[in-house]
Design brief:
alpha/beta, TIM Barrel, nine-stranded parallel sheet
Length: 391
Amino acid sequence: MQFGIFTVGDVTTDPTTGRTPTENERIKATVAIAKKAEEVGLDVFATGEHHNPPFAAPASPPVLLAAIAAQTERLVLSTSTTLITTNDPVRLAQDYAYLQHLSDGRMDLMLGRGNTGPVYPWFGKDIREGIPLAVENYALLHRLWREDVVDWQGKFRTPLQGFTSTPRPLDGVPPFVWHGSIRSPEIAEQAAYYGDGFFSNHIFWPASHTRQMVQLYRRRFEHYGHGQADQAIVGLGGQVFMRKNSQDAVREFRPYFDNAPVYGHGPSLEEFTSQTPLTVGSPQEVIERTLGFRDYVGDYQRQLWLIDHAGLPLKTVLEQLDLLGEEVVPVLRKEFAALKPAHVPDAPTHASRVAAAGGAHDTTVYAEGDDVTGASPEPTTDSTTTVEVTK
């Protein structure tokens, strides 16, 4: 199982000091956090993509991830998320294949629609077309990485004739893709259709909702012939703040929670921690809460935490990483490994996928009768489950 952190890159005033970091300070701090994550033994660092204040997360994540790749040796670099709706699939294919080469395969990416509505018109898109954009754009991206010459025509961009995306994927194996979604069953369906990973960043949602989304993805993954439902590739988000003593953690984190740009001035800290995966307490409480995620999603492959938001100073974030690396992750590795059945796969890596491909460019398996030839395949949706998930 992989453990790591993700950042949304917010530039937020520290409510305890009144100081706001500069964008330069926040960007440099992000690199320091990623390097520290590798130092303490974490597996993954992921960055969001934002195009507006109060965020300094990269508008082009490969820029940040390439800089981190040059300063690390083992860390897997990912996104959380790359906007599949407002980015050109041709540019995504080329940028992330380039990053794949620079990092020697130490990367994958998570695709999503984003949570900032105005981003659509900024890039000439209509938010009402969010799901069709995600479906069509990924259908093209998937082909660009697997076909040397692509002829393509769709609804949302100009046609391609005899187009070759360069560079080609490293070792002939495209980057692994996670489809990230909090609330859209269509995205869980899309992940299942391609046999890709599904990342449920359930930081704002109760366990019951996450359970339904993951169950839908697992069921449809099996339907499309990629393996048993419990072999589907699942990732989860989470949020933690720790101190040795849980009362100290709550007291220190409360002003940051109360003023956070995303959930501040809403439910109380106590309400939020009881109804979502946010855990504020001791390392042991984080261990117990995280192990409990398995109760409602089954065995899963990747756990990422948000730890650097809401104006927390860099020193505090680095202390959180020390606690994760020294006290939390070693226990979770052992416990999750002991619980995982032998037939459930580990998180995909470039090396494991190259070995599995055996030199083939495309290891995707489709169920008999699936239409995968069109420019914009339309994965079907289990209507019963969709009603359950979205009600």
